[in-house]
Predict the 3D structure of the following.
Amino acid sequence: MSIPKTYNPRNTEDKWYAHWIEKGYFNSTPDEREAYTIVIPPPNVTGVLHMGHMLNNTLQDVMVRRARMMGFNACWVPGTDHASIATEAKVVQKLAKEGIQKNDLTRNEFLEHAFDWKEKHGGIILEQLKKLGASCDWKRTKFTMDDEMSESVIKVFVDLHQKGLIYRGVRMVNWDPSAQTALSDEEVIHKEVNSKLYYIKYKIEGTNETITIATTRPETILGDSAICVNPNDERYTHLKDKKAIVPLVDRVIPIIFDEYVDMEFGTGALKITPAHDINDYQLGDKYGLKTIDILNDDGTLSENASLYVGKDRFVVREEIAVDLKTKGCLVKMEEYKNKIGFSERTDAVIEPKLSMQWFFKMESFSKPALEHVMNDDIQFHPPKFKNTYRHWMENIKDWCVSRQLWWGQQIPAYFYEGNKYVVAENKQDALTLAQKENPSVTMDDLKQDSDVLDTWFSSWLWPISVFDGIRNPNNAEISYYYPTNDLITGPDILFFWVARMVMAGYEYRGELPFKNVYLTGLVRDEQGRKMSKTLGNSPDPIKLIKKYGADGVRVGMLLCAPAGNDIPFDEGLCEQGRNFSNKIWNAFRLIKGWEVSNCKQPEGSKKAINWFESKLSKTINEIDESYSKYRISEALMGTYKLVWDDFCSWYLEIVKPNYGSPIDSTTYAETIKQLEKILKLLHPFMPFLSEEIWHLIDNRKEDIIVADWPLVGIVNEQLLSDFENTKEVVAGIRTIRKQQNIANKEQLELLIIENQKSNANLDAIVVKLGNLSSIRTTIEKLNGAFNFMVKSNEYFIPLAGNIDVALEIEKLKKELDYTKGFLKSTETKLGNERFVNNAPQQVVANEKNKMNDAKAKIEIIEIKIKNLS
RNA sequence: GGGCGAUUAACUCAGUUGGUUCAGAGUGCCUCCUUUACACGGAGGAAGUCGGGGGUUCGAGUCCCUCAUUGCCCA
């Protein structure tokens, strides 16, 4: 049977994934082992996999697979989020294409369409995760609108209401005119845009005077109820008690004085539109101004505007400018850069708007949530996000939780007799409550609030509700799996989700929801832009997997992904991952191709095995250390170098029998053992390839996915350092071969003047890798030989060919200069009394050693130069 | 405008509590090599004033100040 030259992922990935599923390795039930739990950040139910998910889920899978190998009862809970706005927008869009308007449907009819859509498009993303190799416990798959999940959400809402933390009121909210719903502050994205600053002249009532204001939203003058200037602004003091007239509508409004106004900005005079600006709203409140709401929910002007009624606000902005100009009220227009809020989901320009909404007072929750992060009960990786988190927690505002949508959990508030309402888990309870107030209320009188809850109001319970910990707080699952271990997500949802889960954790479980939060970077494209659905600049991960293999893509993603750093994605990284797969494959192919016999074990092989055992142990140690610090790319790089450099380039090259010769059985058995350990280290990163080779090595029942994580053995530091020395000698020989154009096939002789004896005799390795006919020590300098130095030992390769004496001398002089410089630096240091007195003894002693070594080396080089010339 | 970071090789990043001539890794680049696991490979090599300036110290990539550039969060 011949093994193909390159690794082909297509032959292995589906096969092993099906096998793992069949064996139930991903499934977890509570047992006597310690649990290791991750809950997935639930992707949008109708979403498709993008690079951010790839990164995120690869990291989670790496953590889960390693935990499983380390003997934990590993449980990764998958699921999806109903994503109210995003999904509803998609459904509305789809219906519109079919000529159906949302308003033509009843709530139930619409929800039927929405569930159809969810059935059709939902879960695609989970199937895609399987291609990546994600070892989720699929039997636990949850959806934030599953009945039990929704029940938990409602229960929590009612509970918070009873605790007096939920209230209803008219407030200035962020209004998304496209989705026609309120949004939380977190859902508003501020972007800098080029806009225009309009300078508009208002007449002062009863005079010929005017006052000019500057605004970026001229259409809102229709809702003006005052003009405000700074009381310290001498330009306007004479306008006290005067009134201004709004152009076009000729409404008379007061001129008020408040220090809020920035005298430097624009003309120093500010128009006040309480209905459409949060700051104006507050001023309006303070001075009892009229609130004139000139916008409809869809962003067109309302009857209140009295002009341009029914036209979109942006159309009006253009038209009003023209009309103002005609009337001579437009003084000038300037180019202006300002920040404008956009809807996170629909990208529509947010309008501040007064509306009746439900709010959640979170202040009392923020205290424990902040404290336990700041004292590292919950650790953030990297810790720099603690600051951002603190800032948000310390300035926490009430959370607007109602959305004017249908897709989501309907708010369990029931109205009767107009504005009276009760909040209860179901209509029956609501009736009971209402009847306490008024016994004559009937079921038919109760009308449930039509709003739904913010999506995040369900996902903030996720780590609890997936284990049914809200409805059944003492069930076996939640006791076993909660708190979870690691949460891996992007920093963009630190407030949306992470912070709120922490709050929910302490409120509803009395403890943290997870011990560690690993915040990934954002995946960016080559131009540094954030990869997003809207931009369409994300490569299709499934295509990448087809091209490079899932393992290749996983490695590619992780190679450049230190926690918290943005990742400029480059397909070349996947290529590197693919090449790595192939390298491992070929190492296996080499070993598998050997003929094994009972011949004597070569000395070099014996030494190489000892060395590699030490090297492997040391590296496992380092890898474990990297994992514990959540430096996953570092752990991967450690594994990468162990395989490529140590195992392939050195170990295998040493033990490799000569062409056509067999390998001794001892070395073969040892080599297989080492390879198996390496495969285990690789498994979390490259699950498919490692499982495939694991089974090609031997026809066996056990799978690597559940094999034991390799233990750290004894590390012989001396041997490791001797081997480093040997590497340098080999490199010296190779350099000479290359410089002199000597074929590798041609055997060479090596002579050594050992000024410094090494402990382990690794000559056999030098002979093998240098292709030497002999190696021996000498005490005489050899003239007319190529030579090099390692530490203070001198190596000579006698050759018939001509030596370029001048070149040799030049090389030696260069080295001499360097060493002399080195000596000088040590001497200066040691000559400095303050250094000798102040530096720790160890440092001074070190410095003395360095000085002596340098002196010895200089002497040798000088003699060499003398001999040559 | 406020807050928090970042700035080290062409690129992406390491660099622990200041202490080896400590400036490092991977990729890329250059030269040579179809050699008997792998050209998705091997051997060798070049490459950085550690953003600028100042300070503390016997000693600064590492600590402090300042300026510049840049990213993120919040208003």
Notes: Residues 164 and 361 of chain A are 9 Å apart (CA to CA).
